[in-house]
Amino acid sequence: MEKGYLHIVTFGCQMNVYDSQRMAQLLSGYQMVKDIKKADLILINTCSVREKAEQKAYSLLGRLRGLKRNKPYVVIGMGGCVAQQEGEALLKRFPHLDMVFGTQALHRLPELVSLASQEGKRICDVGLSHNGDMAPSCVSPLLPNVKSFVTIMQGCNNFCSYCIVPYVRGGEVSRKSEVIIEEVTELVQQGVKEITLLGQNVNSYGKNIPGELSFSQLLEEIGKIPGLKRIRFTTSHPKDLSNELMECFARIDTLCEHIHLPVQAGSDRILRLMNRGYTRQQYMDKVQRLREILPQVSITSDVIVGFPGEEDSDFQDTLDLVKKMEFDNIFSFKYSDRPHTKACSFRDKVPAAIKDQRLTILQQVQREITLKKNKRLEGHIEEVLVEGRSKKDVFELTGRTRSNRVVNFTGNYELVGKLVKVKIEKAYVNSLRGIIVGN
Ligand code: SAH
Ligand code: SF4
Ligand code: F3S
Questions:
Q1: What is the count of structural domains for the chain?
Q2: CB of 276 shorter than 6 A to ligand 2
Q3: Cα of 304 from ligand 1 centre, angstroms
Q4: 167, 169, 163: which is closest to 333 by C-alpha?
Q5: In angstroms, how far is CA 294 from the centroid of its own chain?
Q6: Is 230 within a domain?
Q7: Which end of the chain has fewer surrounding CB within 10 Å, N or C?
Q8: What is the C-alpha separation between 280 and 236, in angstroms, rounded?
Q9: Is the domain of 427 the same as that of 334?
Q10: In angstroms, what is the span from residue 282 Cα to ligand 2's centroid?
């Protein structure tokens, strides 16, 4: 039965992208619309990892006030990490908001939506259990015939002192390996070539579950699924990156040569205050070991500048580590105070101007490294999975190398979903350009 039009706005990480796909699937009686003004049901899936992300959700919601005034029957819901964090308070603060649903309420969404739309109730569902929401979740592919996410675990037990994720996503829960393997198999049968396994800390997959596979064993099993061309995973916590997992890169052909390994800081004092569970040296040793096993491995990282108490010498340590590690790329952030977290109560907050300065310096250093590493690929032939038309030029195709670099090239749209050989002709900071030299 057709129920009306649905528009979903997604902020935040890949986990949220996956959750939004699930929402669309759970509400399949609704037809998705691109134009928010045409929707009868608007869902905003929010992120709370930094204050800026939280503000984005509020400003969008604020802008919908007029729309609700003109079309009072439109149901507006806010879900995800900000919803989990704020709960009922959101209903008080935004009288035009109909529903607040937390990170573990997804499978109840159809029920919540019908209470709001048919009975006109204002709803808040933000219970958080430590068993997680393990409702069936096979979603349709992110890009049909190309790639898809599969969640293998939810939540996090690490409590890095700056991070809100454990508070808004609950404790770590792994999904059963049989279910994951079944889901990947089904997606591959639908034509998917690349799977990204998702979790806040995939390395601790299966821990504390008697008889469950370890993450490396899970990768081995997924590596055997016929027709699957590429496997990726994210995120790995350096403290739990085992030798066994590193060796998977050499053993499993379809495992792409890329690992996202967030370091966060290069100063031991700051790493300790962050509760990261490794030292600078331990991190560097793991990177070295990875490069011994697989010299061409691409390594990306996350870095926070301006953590409370960060002195200039600590920042210099971070800069030095980033230079030494020569990451293929990094995501870098200014520290942002988050409710509930330990770091929020730390003194010696770093002034905004200094955070800005440090971020600029760090990003400049990394830009040069990224460009230098991309330039090394000029003249090389890379395997590219074609994802679709390029955003900037509709006559161009775009895809990714196994190392996760974006490549643009001229080609026929029928190549989408295929693996092609592309000769890299020009490297930029954010992408590569090339020409197809074969299938
Ligand atoms: N689970 C993943 C990522 C979680 S959030 C991991 O452990 O790596 C993604 C990134 O956001 C983090 O790696 C961190 O660099 C950044 N981040 C998290 N909390 C932050 C905060 N309070 N301020 C600034 N950056 C933060
Ligand atoms: Fe946050 Fe740390 Fe967990 Fe990552 S490992 S989600 S940074 S608490
Ligand atoms: Fe943001 Fe929640 Fe992901 S806080 S980073 S959307 S887990």
A1: 3
A2: no
A3: 8
A4: 163
A5: 24
A6: yes
A7: N
A8: 16
A9: no
A10: 18
- The amino acid present at 191, given as its one-letter code, is G
Extract the tokens encoding 241.
């990156």
Q: Are 218 and 206 in contact (CB under 8 A)?
A: yes
Question: Are 386 and 364 contained in the same domain?
Answer: no
Domain CATH number, residue 102:
3.40.50.12160
Ligand 3 contact via 198 beta carbon (within 6 Å):
no
Distance of CA 55 to the CA centre of its chain: 19
Instruction: Using the mean position of ligand 1's atoms as its centre, give its distance from the Cα of residue 331 in Å.
Output: 10
pTM above 0.85, yes or no: yes
H/E element holding 419?
Answer: strand 419-427
Give me the CATH number covering residue 421. 2.40.50.140
Q: How many CB atoms lie within 10 A of CB 98?
A: 24
Tell me which residue range forms the domain holding 423: 381-436
| Residue range 151-170, pLDDT digits in tens | 999 999 999 999 999 999 99
User: 106 and 169, same structural domain?
Assistant: no
Q: Are residues 105 and 29 in the same domain?
A: yes
Whether residue 136 lies inside any domain: the answer is no
- Spatial separation of the C-alpha atoms in residues 161 and 324, rounded to whole Å: 26
Residues 84 and 72: their CA atoms lie apart, in Å, by 25
In this model, does residue 420 exceed pLDDT 60? yes
Ramachandran area for residue 170 (φ above 0: left; ψ -120 to 50: alpha; else beta): left
Same domain, 200 and 294: yes
Q: How far apart are CA 274 and CA 360, in angstroms?
A: 22
**Residue to substitute in 56, 81, 84 for testing ligand 3 pocket (most ligand atoms within 8 angstroms of CB):** 81
The CATH number that applies at residue 160 is 3.80.30.20
Question: Does 109 lie in the same domain as 162?
Answer: no
**CA–CA separation, 433 vs 71, rounded Å?**
47
Confidence at 133, pLDDT banded by 50, 70, 90: low
Instruction: Indicate the burial class of 19 (C-beta count within 10 angstroms; 0-12, 13-18, 19 or more).
Output: buried
| Residues 187, 248 within the same domain | yes
pLDDT greater than 70 at residue 385? yes
* 7 token code pair: 């528009």
Same domain, 248 and 228: yes
